[in-house]
UniProtKB/TrEMBL annotation:
Residues 209-405 form the Fe-containing alcohol dehydrogenase-like C-terminal domain. InterPro entries: ADH_Fe/GldA (IPR001670), ADH_Fe_C (IPR056798), ADH_Fe_CS (IPR018211), Alcohol_dehydrogenase_Fe (IPR039697). Residues 23-198 form the Alcohol dehydrogenase iron-type/glycerol dehydrogenase GldA domain. One of its GO terms (molecular function) is metal ion binding. Belongs to the iron-containing alcohol dehydrogenase family. This is Alcohol dehydrogenase. The lineage of its organism: Bacteria, Bacillati, Chloroflexota, environmental samples. The keyword Secreted does not apply. Keywords: NAD, Oxidoreductase. PANTHER family: ALCOHOL DEHYDROGENASE (PTHR11496), ALCOHOL DEHYDROGENASE 4 (PTHR11496:SF102).
């Protein structure tokens, strides 16, 4: 079967009603952070809690946010101890140090929470919003739509381009007792405002740019081929793939390249919109046990697994993988749909290599004997497994881990 043009392959047309949700206000562009005071005031904020991490603080970004808020007449408190890959216990520590330190019923006088940083800071900000109106620990609400009360309003300012956490209503935490990662998904975790300022990513080191960039690509491709994909999410997902394929190498190799940083930030932002509505799949399900047991950072875990996952998933939707190839910039004219889909997988593998990510799980210290132990954890993420275009067996999951080793 040869295809004169992948663009002429038939699209799936939805035969059901589907929703499309995003935070009510989104600001994108160089200098967007300057408007945080206006946005916070618009929400009626008088006393804001800034939630961030030591690296963002050292980079001077959280102090800039504080200045901007204070210039708008908003007083602030800051929690800057967010650790990478936050845990359930870490959320409780943050709560005790901030909202919980106030008399019962008064969350420290705060009336808004500002997450400034990568996914870890924004997820912790979401958890603190949750905890401002619900008893802890946050693990009580692992699952979908299990949060009973809406907490303090959230504003997010991402400082990396990848997690999409500024858009999503999800927050992921390590559960030390169960040695796994799990997530709270609730519309009550949507931010009121997402402020994406690509200039804030100019100083992000190459390795973090690469890992978070491939996390964003994973979001885009997984949501594009997802069971829950819709025509709305397909628009964002495909454009995200195109932007990331065109800009991630530049953002990694020339950190100060504002055009590349902007393209990558927009790609990541679009991918966040896509996963908010279409979800992720097998790659994320398989990445979580690696984070839980070996503390492999989320983006890195996805990057190591993505090519083999796509190779496995490819046959479930050849037409969509062929379009992925096209969006990645591959020459697909005249190829069969199968060959074009395979080009898509290869293009992803090449991008992961070009941005300097490790070639396999072996290189990040995972023991080969451990792979079999990850299978159950991966398959237990039913929300993601059910959303994967191909229904994986335990044997198939183990095979994908081995191919990623
Ligand atoms: Fe992710």
């Amino acid at each position: 079967m040869t295809s004169p043009s992948i663009a002429r392959l038939p699209e799936r047309v939805p035969d059901t009603v589907y929703p499309f949700r995003v935070p009510p206000a989104q600001l994108f562009g160089a200098g967007a952070v300057e408007q945080i005071g206006v946005e916070a005031k618009r929400l009626g904020t008088r006393h804001a809690l800034i939630v961030t991490d030591p690296g963002v603080t050292r980079a001077g970004i959280s102090s800039r946010v504080r200045e901007l808020l204070e210039a708008a007449g908003i007083s602030t408190g800051t929690y800057e101890e967010v650790q990478p890959e936050p845990t359930v216990a870490g959320v409780e520590r943050a709560y005790d140090a901030t909202l919980g330190a106030a008399p019962a019923g008064s969350p420290g006088g705060y009336d808004a929470i500002i997450g400034v940083g990568g996914g870890s800071a924004m997820d912790t900000a979401k958890a603190l919003s949750l905890r401002s109106a619900n008893p802890g620990p946050v693990s009580r609400y692992f699952g979908v739509e299990l949060v009973p009360n809406t907490g303090l309003p959230l504003i997010h300012v991402p400082t990396t381009a990848g997690t999409g956490a500024e858009i999503t209503p999800n927050a992921i935490f390590g559960d030390e007792e169960r040695r796994l990662k799990a997530g709270v998904v609730s519309h009550r975790l949507f931010a009121q405002v997402a402020i994406v300022d690509p200039d804030l990513t100019l100083g992000v080191p190459a390795t973090v740019t690469a890992a978070s960039g491939i996390d964003a690509l994973t979001h885009a491709i997984e949501s594009y081929v997802a069971v829950k994909a819709t025509p709305h999410t397909d628009l964002y997902a495909l454009e995200s793939i195109r932007l990331i394929a065109a800009n991630l190498r530049g953002a990694v190799t020339r950190g100060g390249d504002r055009a590349a940083r902007t393209g990558q930030a927009l790609g990541s932002f679009y991918a966040g919109i896509a996963i908010t509505n279409a979800g992720t799949g097998l790659c994320h399900a398989m990445a979580y046990p690696l984070g839980g047991a070996y503390h492999v950072p989320h983006g890195m875990a996805n990057a190591l697994l993505l090519p083999a996952v796509l190779e496995y998933n490819m046959v479930a939707d050849l037409a969509k993988m062929a379009r992925v190839a096209e969006a990645m910039g591959e020459q697909v004219v005249g190829l069969s749909v199968y060959d074009a889909a395979q080009r898509g997988v290869e293009a992803v593998r090449r991008l992961c290599r070009d941005v300097g990510l490790p070639a396999g799980l072996r290189e990040v210290g995972v023991s080969e004997d451990a792979l079999a132990h990850f299978v159950e954890g991966a398959l237990s993420a039913a929300r993601l497994i059910d959303n994967n275009p191909r229904r994986p067996t335990p044997e198939a999951v183990l095979d994908v881990y081995r191919r990623s080793y």
